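Hi L.,

As promised, Mannitol 2-dehydrogenase:
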Amino acid sequence: MSAIELKQAKLAQLPADVAVPAYVRETLVPSIVHIGVGGFFRAHQAVYLDDLLALPGNVEWGYCGVGLLAIDAAMRDAMRSQDGLYTVVERSAAGDSARIIGCVGEYLYALDDPQAVLEKLADPGTRIVALTITEGGYYVNQGTGEFDAAHPDIVHELAHPESPRCSFGYLAAALALRRERGLAPFTIMSCDNLQNNGDVTRKMLLAFLALRDLELARWLATDGSFPNSMVDRITPATTDEHRALVRDSFGIIDAWPVVCEPFRQWVIEDEFPQGRPAWEKVGAQMTHDVLPYEKMKLRLLNASHQALCYIGMQLGYTFAHEAMGDPGIRALVRRMMDDEVTPLLDEVEGIDLARYKDTLIERFSNPAVRDQLARIGTEGSARIPKFVLPSVREALAQGGAIKLLAFTVACWFRYLEGHDEAGRDMPLNDPYAVRLRALALQGGADAAALLSLRELFGDLSDTPAFAQAVAQALASLYGLGARGALEQIVA
């Protein structure tokens, strides 16, 4: 049988082993606007809502996706050509399973019609605006923790408030419209990997609004809500290999499927004055204190991802499971979690930390997911300060060990040079790529040039214990090579 093009009218023709939406999509109310419709959102938050919509009485909740960037044009085309439908494939050693997600009933592309995006955000029916805009999308000066008003996006928004381009610009313009129209602000929910992501969103957005419209900032500070959340599901970037898998294994022609691991977790602070979906009915955990879960996940999972990806690429690996098959990298990850990060963590209700770490090793090693190291290593200028450096700071304050954490930073420095030891390119996807590459080439085996970036390292640049540990590790990477440095550090 030939493969079937994914569309609403053809759902009944799909193979019986492919689950399809168990609700009438036309009845959904798109009361949640999601900015940043990428692979993670489609494999995580959208799956939770799709599960909920299969239960009766939840049609008041649906998604309207929004793309703000030029690169979102491809997602626009895929979503519109497929009536907002797409395939999620869960991959494990036990096999693959596929389902069709239908909760994204509408997709708006800001570069086509910015006014349509603003009106959707300002619509009285919009109750939640959710964000997956990457760690770098919140305009945080990593060195100080304050708002980066000098960022080019922000400079543009302040000079041209009537022509927004970034998420903060659109949020500001839409909130101004709601205030003028006597509407309450929508709840703003970050779903990005930031500790205290709701608090960070609140702080940065209010700082931006204070420069743009002080009265609007005061209104949002009083009436707005920014729930914290912790999200978790390993989701590699979609490739042509994934499209072929969906076509050949499940008989579906899908322009942009998403592949992920079976595991997923979502912990949400229950602060939604405009109402919310009953996510707890489908496995999400509603709480009034997300921080312990968030800290555990960011410091263990996300920091370990940083530890394995940069050294992995230098050793010529492409995928996470390949890197985890290397005894040295596996030891690096496990020892960093056990010896340097775990002593900094509080007890987390309902979580056995030893078992949690075992599960992380299993997840990283899942050969079916084929998670790209290049994906994990994107935006290191945002991820290293958020996932690795907080543990460094706490460990130094407590007199703890930082050797492996510092080695992870040094591996990032070495990666920034651009080539592995065989001369192969290591792709650098980072908003500060040009500056980082220049400093890496200038400094070489001397870490001082990159450590001088105070907007990333703050006072750690002047902390001898940290600076010396990174300098020694980087010198060993250049002097002994990646394999020799790794063997030395885990010996």
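The first strand starts at residue 4 and ends at 5.

Thanks again for sending the construct details.

K.
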